[in-house]
């Protein structure tokens, strides 16, 4: 019997990601849309606030290093979730306040988004480090896929439910929905981690003796780690640039209500989940040596995402009859395809090097993702605002940004082709295990 966490314990830890996703989806979708459409603020405002949230996460390597030194991850997870949930509720309060007192609302929003960033970074990094250290080597790919799928499930479940209760919209209703989600998410996270590390985790490195700068330099000196960091940055930049402009675009182009655009976000995340499960089924053994290739699906996912973004951009010219929901679902589907391959690669790289540096290594990739998401949100919204000043039709500005994102996904595909030769048998085996387990988790979640 394999040592380390059992499948049940891995699934429990995945619930932390479900709780995290439930809080974050309201911030990135609903709060953003309300600021742009209902409050008529420039798109750069929520973009800048999300940029603060992601900028704080550049400290992920230091948080990972800290958990390496102290040996326990659970306090970092619980503390991080507490900060995340408090900050998530704070963003709703700030948005409601901004409708009456703009300056006070924005000041509270800055504090709330910083708190969200600190909480998400501390909890997310420590959770991945706990899994990497407490899961048997052959199960690491499966564990990573479980927590990713369960985070997407948190998006997919929360967005449509929140959209239902947000209509008819009001600031008080927004606060009530956000507060309920935050309380439930924190309770789920605490119950999920209770006793798991003490019962099943492999002991973490007792004390990280090398200084942080030296450890970080060693990690960044690894060629594979550097190339993968670049891929994470560019692909996540392409993904995040549409995160803050899709719902306002749908509201302007198709006159959707806040509840309807929140449901649209849920449809996109549902597509991500479907893409992950679909590729997992193929790589579980039925795809053979060609269709089981990590690099093939990474490239296909990036190219598919680019094509879907071009289709969404075309909606600006096609008008109300355009099948926007189908295009948004296709975008999510392609995102899920490349995510599965990226997870397999990440877990393969995380298993290399000194185990006492695992937290720092995970933190580097988390920081790359955080910087990319922050930069994407700011650049996407800034470009929309600038282009709206230059063109007569606002929808053309959105279409231009979606097209630029498609180009970024094309660049990501080119980088993916250079990541490495086809994955080793051990890494392919890890992804196959991830695929089988993610399928089972997905059906159980229903």
UniProtKB/TrEMBL annotation:
Annotated InterPro entries: MFS_trans_sf (IPR036259), PucC (IPR026036), PucC-rel (IPR004896)
rRNA-binding recorded as keyword: no
Coiled coil ranges: none
Protein location: Membrane
Keywords annotated in UniProt: Membrane, Transmembrane, Transmembrane helix
GO annotation, cellular component aspect: membrane
Record-linked CDD domains: MFS_BCD_PucC-like (cd06176)
Matches recorded under PANTHER family: 44.5 KD BACTERIOCHLOROPHYLL SYNTHASE SUBUNIT
Protein name stated in the entry: Protein PucC
Organism expressing this protein natively: Methylobacterium hispanicum
The encoding gene: pucC_1
